[in-house]
Amino acid sequence: MVDDGLLMAAVRVEQSVNAVCATAGITAAEFEAALDANLRRRLPPAELRLRGGVSAPLEILRDRYGVPHIYAQTTADLYYGLGLAMGQDRLWQMDVFRRRGQGRLAEVLGAGQISADVTHRTLGLDLIAAREADLLDDRTGAVLRAFVAGINRAVEEAGDNPPIEFDLLGYRPEPWRVQDILAAVRAFWWQLNGRLASIVVGEAAQRHLPAGPLRDAFMTPEFGDEPIVPRGEGYPPVDLPPAVPGGHESLLTVPVGTDTSATGSNNWAVGGRRTRSGAGVLGSDPHLPFALPGNWYECRLVGPEDDAVGAAWAGMPGLWFGRNRRIAWGITNNNVSLRDLYAEEVDLDDPDRYRDGETWRPFTERAIEIAVRDGAPERLVVRESVRGPVVNHIVPALDQTGDPPLSLRWVGQEHVENVKPLLAVNRAGNWAEFRAALADWSIPTFNWVYADVDGHVGYQCASRLPIRGRVTRGFRDANNPEDRWLGYVPFEAMPRRDDPPEGFVATANNAAVAKDYPYPFYGAFASGDRALRIRERIVAEGVFDAEACRALQQDTYSPYAQRISVALLRRLAGQTDPEVALFVAQIEGWDHRYETAARAPVFFDMFMRVWTARIASERFPAHLAGHVAGQGTVGARLLEADDLTWFEGDKDAIVVESVRQAVREVRERFGTDPSGWAWGNIHFAQFKHPLSNSVLASRFDVGPRGISGGAATVRNTGLGTSPLFGAASGAEYQLVADLGDGQGILANQNLGQSGQPGSPHYGDQFANWIEGRYHAVALDRARVEAEQTASARIEPDGAVGSRQ
Predict the structure, then answer these.
(1) What share of the chain is helix, strand, coil (3-state, %, to 5)?
(2) What is the DSSP letter of 417?
(3) pTM for this predicted structure
(4) In this predicted model, what pLDDT tens digit does every residue of 666-682 receive, in sequence order?
(5) Does the pLDDT value for residue 26 go beyond 80?
(6) 654-674 as b/e, with b when 16 or more CB fall inside 10 Å?
(7) How far apart are CA 67 and CA 296, in angstroms?
(8) What SS3 state is found at 304?
(9) What is the mean pLDDT of residues 532-553?
């Protein structure tokens, strides 16, 4: 048998497997068996009995998918159990998340993570988290301390057999602290809310496009007349701060901009008069750039205050998606602007000073040193104004000769308590309690949908949304009074819907409000095409139930492709060029569904890639063109009508040449055999572990498999660039909650519950996710016990860490 030192030399690719086998005198098959045994040894035992750390007996039962069902007699014990279970399953992922927030990834992963560390250290998330840990209210602090104690218990129980990533990289997890949780989750909020590049896009539009139709088309999302809250729905009376010049009308005329990330979440709640059971039915599927493991952690929580099931973020207590005995909830991201970039005026005689009103102040400075594995430390000095850190080094440059110092103001720099409202959401029993919980939610801006057992549904947008005196999508002037933050939109005036007349609510990252909303509400929103499709499907369904909800989450029809295809084929009519003819033959007759056997999506998306790049290059310098491609309604408008003078040359000739280029690229990239053009051969999901290598790939990586859906479908599987058109993002978790069914929820993860490669639950949900099959997560303990695969029981008292 090979010893662990030789085994690790092989899996680190320090020695070849053949050399290790020769040294140890074993066969290749015996090496493989030893590697599997090593991975299994790192897993928690199926039956774990512990003492200490809790005030009363705590039980964790795992179902057939490894989902922990945690039963506790006190709230602190419940979250101790969640920390323990999460630490058993996702310890290295959680360490990566906290290191990301602390700006310490390069320390263990090397120079490739310097950029991420520079960003998070510039933001000062480590400093913010340390401050926030001292400001927690007593009840929230107690939950977080218990959660952290549970994680540390998982570390202790792992002992010398932690997840293999720690041994591959040669380090051990440091003890967790409450501030580590806060740093990790604030980095996640930044991922959802930062997006500084979209401000650069807005500024670029102001500089390179004339005011009027061209700029408006560029900054207006597709299907922009599909807001979450329709025009004409009443809002409470509001009083804008007196510093807002021109009143309401001045705030309603700036187009909002488009989120071009092609990563889109969906949720909806259908009320009782439309459902089979008469109770509400809710669906929610959060979409993020794909990673291994995924971000979400399924669990069932039962304690004196909690009785809920759903998914938590891997690193924070509380369910972001789920249901309890009375209500269900889900979220999508709403990219309304909670941050601004301020152009600072520097003293020409002293570049270390900036103007703040009538005063010249010195920039404050923070020296930062980032440790780099196998490399020299990265050192930089971050300057700050009274508005926040200067962030030019993490923002795409608008002017290659140099932009002014750009300081960042972001709600996430302020004191916020989002653990507290999330726990209150989990415990709410009706719409009033649900909204009361969200009154304290600060960041990110989320579209929350709600359904309950009585058939009620609702939508609430929750956020600490700044009011400024001037609307702009670009840089703000640090010394313009109209660019100051004047306060925040009152919670009672935030967009919401209560039991709307159509009997359902739905969101898909689209704009939340129409232009009659009395406060400025702008950002970079997704096209409304997914929201349109969701609305059409729910209306057409007749009677809605869990199966209809599941089918809608798997829907692959693209209204955008339908719209563009009609206009494009009309422009190509009569063309005899062989490449154009091939393109037309693929697109004609397409049902606009992104199914794995279809060939049309490859040609359509290749054309859109070429077309949007051509549009961007016409009006923007080369260093910005990649950032702005695909923005707004320009691409569709130029095909559908002749009312925009965008190109200097002949537009129809440019369309034809773009089609021909698209056909050539399809052939060059994917071959000339038509069988290779099937969407599933090109659009596939493959999850690669960041430490995977030639020895570990078969155990660490999941996939590839072709997958249906595209960038503009409800089953949103965003298009990657490496490989081109690979599935780069999508629903890592899918929730279906029929409140008429007291059994629990239907759910789906893209990979599995465990982040440990040796676990049977590392990738056991992947095939189900590809094929749209769901599993049940039960509310009732008897059903869990009937399929129980593992258990842990922790008794109070005794020596901490001792096993019975």
Answers:
(1) 40, 20, 40
(2) -
(3) 0.95
(4) 999 999 999 999 999 99
(5) yes
(6) bbbbbbbbbbebbeeebeeee
(7) 12
(8) coil
(9) 96
